[in-house]
Design brief:
Elements: E1 2-7, H1 17-23, E2 27-32, E3 47-50, H2 65-78, E4 83-86, H3 88-96, E5 101-116, E6 131-141, E7 148-153, E8 160-163, E9 167-170, H4 178-188, H5 201-205, H6 209-227, H7 236-244
Parallel strand pairs: 1-2, 1-3, 3-4, 4-9
Antiparallel strand pairs: 5-6, 5-7, 7-8, 8-9
């Protein structure tokens, strides 16, 4: 199976997602938009993962590749393939599906709880009533038309959503590791200003192993849910290679 991830800055990579991909026998490739952004052929990707970044979806004059990325995401979703978007990635999914992206009423940076919302529809991911997760965002979005609202926090209403059975957007960062937390602080320290939902550097870095373990267990549950939606049929090119050697 083939996973492809979109990376927008060097310091926001896969985090704990990488070990899940390895454990589940995925081969992975990436598009690095901060380098030479080469997009894959959609029919050669089983699972698309869209990482975060400090830019806004609305910064297309500064980052013209955003429009190509949005077009690719829209086409990939229309092909009914699994997609996971994290932070900027969730905003890109929302925008690709016609929603507006705009500043949240509060910046949310650090360890704060999200709260899962009761779900009635089958094949819908269910978040726990409360889970402490990592945040680093200042923007939010309207839910795409037809999306299911999965989770919220005190500072940000739209923390997670699902489209159909195969698309999940997460405003929060369930993939964060101690290393990636230190990296984003190093590159975005200027955002750590006093605020109701902004923790200081020491508080952020004091999270213990138990918090990270719980965070990664929730990330794995989301990934398992989407992984179970993958079409296991071989790619056309694989069939041709097998037939002709």
């Amino acid at each position: 199976m083939k996973a492809h991830y979109f990376q927008h800055v060097p310091f926001e990579g896969l985090g704990s997602i990488e070990s899940w991909l390895q454990k589940n026998n995925f081969t992975s490739t990436n598009t690095k938009f901060f380098a030479v952004p080469i997009l894959p052929a959609p029919d050669q990707v089983d699972f698309l993962i869209i990482m975060g970044g400090p830019m806004s979806v609305n910064d297309q004059d500064e980052y013209p590749w955003l429009q190509n990325e949005l077009n690719f995401i829209r086409e990939f979703i229309q092909r009914d393939k699994p997609v996971l978007g994290i932070c900027l990635g969730a905003q890109l999914i929302a925008s690709a599906m016609g929603s507006k992206i705009f500043p949240n009423r509060e910046k949310e940076i650090g360890w704060f709880p999200i709260h899962g919302l009761p779900q009635q529809r089958k094949n819908t991911f269910s978040f726990p009533d409360s889970a402490t997760v990592f945040h680093w965002h200042g923007q939010t979005f309207d839910l795409p038309e037809g999306a299911t609202h999965l989770a919220q926090s005190e500072a940000c209403k739209n923390q997670a959503f699902q489209i159909g059975n195969k698309v999940i957007g997460l405003q929060c960062h369930l993939e964060t590791t101690p290393e990636s937390a230190r990296s984003i602080i190093t590159h975005c320290r200027e955002e750590l200003v006093p605020g109701q939902y902004i923790q200081d550097e020491q508080t952020i870095l004091s999270a213990d192993a138990e918090i990270y373990a719980s965070l990664h267990q929730l990330m794995e549950k989301v990934l398992d849910f989407l992984g179970n939606q993958i079409d296991r049929q071989p790619h056309t090119n694989d069939l041709l290679r097998n037939h002709y050697g």
